[in-house]
Amino acid sequence: MPETSQNDALNTSKHEARKHNLASINQEFNDFLGLHSADQKLLKRYHEALARDSETFAKVFYDYLMASPVTARVLKRYQAQGGVIDHLVKKQTQHLFGLLSGSIDDASARCIAHIGEIHHRYGIEPVWIMGAYRLYIKHLQACVRNGMEIKDSDRASLEDTITKLLFRDMGLMLEAYWDSGLLALLEEKEKVSDLQEQITSLLANIPQLLWSMDISRNQPLYVSPSSRLICEMDIDMPIPCMGWTVPEDREKVELAWQNALQGQAVEVESRVNLPNGKQGWFRRHFYPYRNKAGEVVRIDGLMEDTTEAKATLESLNTLATTDSLTGLTNRTLFHDRLSQAIASVGRGNDQQIVVMLMDLDRFKEINDTLGHPAGDNVLIQVAHRLQAMLRQTDTLARLGGDEFGILLPHIGDGHRTAERLAKKFLQAFVSPFNYDDNELYLGASIGIAIYPQHGEDVATLMSRADVAMYDIKNKEARFKFYHAELNPDAQQRLQLSGDLRRALERNELVLHYQPKIDLRSNTVVGAEALLRWNHPKHGLIPPDQFISLAERTGLIRPITDWVIETAIDHCQAWRQAGHTLRVAVNVSVRSFQTTGLMDTIDRVLQGLDKRADLLEIEITENVLMSDITHITAMLKRISDMGCRIAIDDFGTGYSSLAYLKKLPLHTLKIDKSFVLDMASDENDAAIVHSTIDLAHNLGLSIVAEGIENRETLDLLTDLGCDGGQGYYFSKPQPAETFLNCVK
Ligand code: C2E
Ligand code: MG
Ligand code: MG
User: What's the number of CA atoms in the CB half-sphere (13 Å) around residue 479?
Assistant: First the structure.
């Protein structure tokens, strides 16, 4: 039932009850006062005589009301609200004289009751009414005693009738007066109990437990009915659910309670064993209440379930410290762990900390060709492989993109451990990663910095491992320890990266050419294009110092395109000048991983009038390690186009003979590190010797780089080396002067 109609029904039934009640009261009054039809008859006879002087009485009544300050105040207030006192007095006297009609039925009783209610509502005191009745009775007595029309024999009974009527009137009016007061009181009570009900249901529905403890008597004053909403367990006092609290947490809760007893408002969080076997987190608040003397007499408490909030907080924490893709530690937490490790090792201790940064090779290509889901999947696989090789105390983190960090805290011999682990990690990349039906080959570069020798704080160690990682050249091993000679200035590198972006547009890149000599005929048969950066501030920067930067910033792709195009332009210019020379360009492993390389080669070949063999692509041995299937396919296409392919820096990598046999190669270039000292170092000479034999056995031509003197040249010629390059013949020359060394 809607609330208003419920109230209406309630009021109607109350009204009925009162009507019924009034009828029976009226009956009682008439019975007890002995009011009968004889009285009515008598009054009827003398009504006129008694009512005649009503005007005079109205005057008496008015004077009476105005005589006392309290009643006068009420009248004035009535007047101020727009009432007319004269009318009020007249109405009242009319009522009084109306009494003399002698009607004693229920309708008259209701009318009197109504007046009683109005008196109550306007705050007219019963005692003032009594005074008015006394005056009225006095007035009527005088009328009865002195009235000429009244028979002497009737005077006594008439006076009695009037007395009875006035008592009835007074009585019924007062009954209604008090009844009205009682009703108002009941209404107030009802309002209070409604309010109480609302509060009780509110407390029953809030998911917090509220309670109040009388400290002096150690008795609960109140426990909110919502305890079951909190947990299905017994609420023991004074600290609810103390018995269910996890034993290790009890002490802090107890301590908080003691502090509250000392007058401190406290809150404490603890774990609570729930009856369902699970564990939850609960926070209790204790609010001490002091009496006027300042003593803590009561503690009000609140207890709430914080399990969910705690879990949310924890998951936020996890989010902030975990890489969401791999579930590994993220960069923030990695830094934290490193800083903790540094703090716990301390100085003057034999222990070391190893920081390794690992960057994946060919990862971008996977993303570019197979899409991000493939890239994500591969990153997860990498994370699994690496994680399996670490101890529990080590940290593997994904620092972003395809970069991982490894932290080995508290190591005795950092160098040895790091080297062993780095090799193990690289081994993890030998077998392909699988995605759908693809076999994906990835490589990795690892830069290593060791605390304390390479740095004593997080930033230095991180940046030095970074420097070592980006210093890894394709021709060298896949991991590297930081050492002071490495281009250490990360800041400068950063600056250079911005500059390099603009270098292409500003034509700051230049190619120098080093002649390639046919050792049998001793003639220049070709030239290797070697890149330099003519930096406006730093002067001519050698490629070692910016190729790796170009690789990591993605600039290597446009740079490789530019190198190939420019080298072919020069090749054409020399041809036109009457010198048909093969031009060799170095293509780094990263450019090999981008799809545009083929298009560029294809395009430049158009300008070579079917002399594709004039273009030679030099790739370092390490390219072969990345993804043999992919590389073989690429090299095959290049070779099919008619270009020549040379393996550069041969002897520094780990290429297997089986691969060398399978690949469409033309030339091996033996690394200059073996050639430079071969005249004085027997080992180097032996390596060079066997490499020349190997190449010939595989049907490849062999070129030695780094020939600096005649002795070396003679040795190489004796060993049957096909070609050579080196300062002995010529240092790399600008394109403009290159032809001078050909003539
Ligand atoms: P690389 O391809 O092995 O080039 C030979 C390097 O040996 C050149 O260094 C050359 O100047 C140097 N060299 C030549 N003869 C001698 C000698 O008799 N003695 C000594 N000590 N060194 C000699 P450069 O020009 O500094 O280039 C270094 C490396 O940078 C190159 O090694 C190559 O891997 C890379 N590079 C050069 N140009 C490019 C390029 O256009 N693209 C890419 N991706 N890499 C390039
Ligand atoms: Mg080269
Ligand atoms: Mg080389």
Answer: 20
Give whole-number Cα distances, 393 to 141, 331, 336, 341, 346, in Å.
115, 17, 14, 11, 18
Mutate to test the pocket of ligand 1, among 549, 703, 705 (most ligand atoms within 8 A of CB): 705
Which residue type is seen at 594? T
Same domain, 171 and 213: no
Sequence-ordered list of residues with C-beta below 8 angstroms from that of 690, at least 6 positions apart, any chain: none
Residues framing ligand 1 (Cβ under 6 A) = 514, 530-531, 542-544, 547, 563, 586-588, 618, 648-649, 672, 705-708, 725-727, 732
Greatest alpha-carbon span in the chain: 177
Of 662 and 687, the structure prediction assigns the larger pLDDT to: 687
Atom 17 of ligand 1 has which residue's CA nearest to it?
706
User: pTM for the complete prediction?
Assistant: 0.45
Q: Is residue 203 part of a domain?
A: no
Last residue of one domain, picked from the residues 447, 464, 487? 487
* CATH number reported for the structural domain that contains residue 616 in this entry: 3.20.20.450
Residue 228's closest CA among 267, 275, 266? Answer: 275
Domain coverage including residue 548: 501-742
Tens of pLDDT along 496-537? Answer: 666 787 888 889 999 999 999 999 999 999 999 999 999 888
Residue with CA nearest ligand 1 atom 34: 586
554: helix, strand or coil: coil
- Give the strand pairing for 395-400 and 403-411: antiparallel
**Choice from 504, 531, 541, 586 to test ligand 1 binding pocket (greatest atom count within 8 A of CB):** 586
The contacts of residue 605 (CB under 8 Å, 6+ apart) are: 612, 615, 641, 642, 643
Nearest to 281 by CA among 253, 319, 323, 261: 253
Task: For residue range 377-432, list pLDDT tens digits in order.
Answer: 999 999 999 999 999 999 999 988 899 999 999 888 899 999 999 999 999 988 88
Highest mean pLDDT among 311-320, 456-465, 547-556: 456-465
